[in-house]
Amino acid sequence: ILLSNTLIAQITIGTIEYDSTAVDGYTLFNPNSTDTSYLIDNCGQIINTWKGSARPGLSVYFLEDGTLLRTSRMSTGFYEIAGKGGLIEKLDWNGNLLWSYELCDALNCQHHDIQPLPNGNILILALEEKTVSEAVAEGRDPTKLNQPRIWMEYVLEIMPIGLDSAAIVWEWHVIDHLVQDFDSTQNNYGLIADHCELFDFNYGNNKPDWLHFNAVNYNPVLDQIIITSRNWSELYVIDHSTTTQEAASHSGGNAGSGGDILFRWGNPITYQAGTAQDQMLFGPHDPQWIPDSFVNEGKIIVFNNGDTRLFSTVDIITPPLDSTYNYIKPVGTAYGPTNVDWTFVPFDTAGFFSGRISGAQPLPNGNILACVGAQGKFIEVDTLKNILWKYQSPVTNSGILGQGGTLTQGGNSVFRCTKYLPSYPGFSGHILSPGNTIESDGHLSYCSVSTSTKPANTEKNSFKIYPNPTSSQLTIELEKMEKNTDLSVFNALGQYHARYAINQTNRISLDCFNWPVGVYFVKIKNLPSQKI
Questions:
Q1: What does the alpha-carbon distance between residue 318 and residue 119 come to, in Å, rounded to a whole number?
Q2: What CA–CA distances, in Å, run from 495 to 12, 99, 466?
Q3: Strand order in the sheet with 234-239
Q4: Are 413 and 395 in contact (CB under 8 A)?
Q5: Which of 103, 222, 378, 440 is buried most deeply by CB count within 10 Å?
Q6: Is 370 exposed, middle or buried (0-12, 13-18, 19+ CB in 10 A)?
Q7: Residue-wise burial string across 124-139, b where 16 or more C-beta atoms lie within 10 A, e elsewhere
Q8: Which has the closest alpha carbon to 39: 54, 51, 29, 24?
């Protein structure tokens, strides 16, 4: 039995936890069920909202020029796919549409993610349809084609023009970087184990969406792009310094490898360099370089969904680099590292599990902000893995919940969240005045009027619980006795388990030998609920 005094049981949505050492900032997210993007402070109070054309498809960004860049899910065009988007919109602070761009027709569609670049251009994750005959001509085994089409991933870089146009200035296509050992008459025939820089065209499932890329990120120092594949449980680094012609080849660019994979990690089975015991990623999302490591070790953070192992983690790795900061290509073995540098998974693994979507953001002070996407939950932790801030989105498929409302798995999902510091250039010239919480009955006991003001209750150790965890006797000790103090115990569902009156003493012992095994929360009337 584990007990905690960090939660007030009836608070089920909005800001649930808020420690004074959480990063002061504003968090942006767009629930998957709505066309509205929200910017909130640490108290869960609304700073601004933007209304797009449709539900997201799926990512949203707040730019340094003070505009919002979001994707929208098109209802026409390309076949229905997970993460379908198709429309990119740019809105000003007041929600006015400044620019839009459609990429969704019968053969192509933007999906999941986009990435704004420092020069104002935008990277786009997209799918292009190929027929069975086109796939077979590239060495696909016909028995692995169970529909009359297959979707190939590609990345575009566009330069916005005018109000609704763009110029394609760079592109990279998976179809140019395939290897297969099925048809020896094709140019891309070869031994998979000898070509870890390429994609095995016959690996994976037989569905049209055989790769399922889900995130794209950019490193401006290295001029490289990182991508994750949910279906293959890998991340990939490719060279952006190439021309479009070089990106379609195996030479050119800063690394001299054209558009081939420079580094891959997570599942060496995909290039016949390992077994199931060597797999490190499981349906990952949102890979990012950690900015402080851009020039030295190039550390990468990723949300490791764990869709087959049934628990999620946030992992940080250091790719193997040589003295000139090029990735060390393995010979006959898998890409390293064999272990992660840092990983986070809380005691309550069920409360941190998301088999799909999700993300993890490194914050400037070393904290990590994680989005448990399927649960619409945001958690900020420090390097010692202490939870400093927890927020539960109240926006669901059936509307906005109130406190105590029933949350269903996936019903309030969020693709990703991002925290921006008050000093972020995009806030320049704007009044950041906290409004109401998204939910009508928001709880603000942790907060005062803004995120720059820390929680009003700063007294520590107002009561102690020991031993914790326990299986028999539990002692609760108050530092200060208040008259007619009530002590309540709730189970993990927020239901009353027991209630006690404390009189004439600052210490109470509880017999919990017969309590069902689980997590419990303690609330003491007349005392602040603080982390100990």
A1: 28
A2: 12, 49, 22
A3: 213-219, 224-229, 234-239, 263-265
A4: no
A5: 378
A6: buried
A7: bbbbbbbeeeebbebb
A8: 29
Structure tokens at 246: 């070089």
The whole-angstrom separation of Cα 302 and Cα 471 is 36
Tokens of 50: 């933007």
Collapsed DSSP state (helix, strand, coil) of residue 132: helix
